[in-house]
Amino acid sequence: MTPWLLAVVTALTVGIGPTAAATPDAAAPEATPVSTNGALHVCGVRLCNRFGQQVQLRGMSTHGIQWYANCVNAKSLDVLAKDWKADVLRVSMYVQEDGYASNPKKFTELVDDYIDLATERGLYVIVDWHILDPGDPKANLSRAKTFFTEIAKRHRTADNILYEIANEPSDVSWSRIRSYAEEVIPIIRAQDSDAVVLVGTRAWSSLGVSEDADEREVVNNPVRATNVMYTFHFYAASHGRIYLDTLTRAADKLPMFVTEFGTQTYTGDGGNDFTRSQQYLDLMASKRISWTNWNWSDDKRSGAVFKKGTCKAGTYADPAQLKPAGTWVRDRIRSGRIASSAPGELAPA
């Protein structure tokens, strides 16, 4: 334990609050991101911990859990938390494509299990309502209300959950996305009054750039709710300077969270552009923009961090099983946590 963390633990009681009666959330272990920083909240245009200090979460997103559930388990999350030293896991639950809509009970239970696994390891969890096709979030409004009511009710006293209510809206106006958010957020707030809610932006969460718009439509018409952040996604080999500049401007006016990015093209495949990726990471570090990388699986595409067969073999801890993108992002998650001992950043575990 670092001297800084020891001082915090000595001076302040560390740990999450009482657990929910229906499905208790285990108290986060000591000296983890959650035990150190507690419940998060939006402060101005930044994310802050329970002490009011700005924080930057760094971690990984799962692939679609209907396809790669075998990659998310106690063993793999031990590696993510202890070896990679991540702060956050994004659980990507597709709605269509054999996801939630095909079996709501099954996928609600699966997400619930992943929340418990992450909580036991002191990680924050992003519950990702992964809409992709159709891109109109209102097409699944009733399902979203049912799902988020259930998950928020089960984990209403947890300190480590963030709700991402629309992964990548597309071919739909910002006003419609905003209207959707203002219907879903009260559903979550009825169960969990103060959790951070992440709202997808237009054009595949590009702040509208991929449909020839920009951040001004959100700046001028923000969601009418508190403790809300806006998401931005990028794939470095496809999304160049105009996207980077848009995120730069937006982060000075809006609370931003990059819930998905890759070092490849927007397909999650192809060659890695590590130079452009580092430019994005430098920007996010300077503005304390939290991020999760796509994706924690052994999918055949270059954006999956593990080589094919890793999940079946359970060899997550072997660096030789990482693809180039996996090695790159692991190094940056680890170095970020190790260096984060200054006040205002996540303390190392």
Which short descriptors sum up this protein?
349 residues; alpha/beta; TIM Barrel; eight-stranded parallel β-barrel; two-stranded antiparallel ribbon; 10 strands; disordered N terminus
**Helix tally?**
12
Classify the beta-strand content into a percent band.
Answer: 15-25%
**Globular, elongated, flat, extended or rod-shaped: what is the shape?**
globular
- The CATH topology is TIM Barrel
Keywords: Glycosidase, Hydrolase, Signal
Catalytic activity: Endohydrolysis of (1->4)-beta-D-glucosidic linkages in cellulose, lichenin and cereal beta-D-glucans
Pfam family, one: Cellulase
Signal peptide: 1-21
Write the layout of secondary structure elements.
Elements: H1 3-11, H2 33-37, E1 41-43, E2 46-48, E3 58-62, H3 74-83, E4 88-94, H4 104-120, E5 124-130, H5 141-154, E6 161-164, H6 174-189, E7 197-199, H7 202-205, H8 216-220, E8 228-235, H9 241-250, E9 256-262, H10 274-286, E10 290-296, H11 310-313, H12 324-339
Parallel strand pairs: 3-4, 3-10, 4-5, 5-6, 6-7, 7-8, 8-9, 9-10
Antiparallel strand pairs: 1-2
Helix pairs in contact: 4-5, 5-6
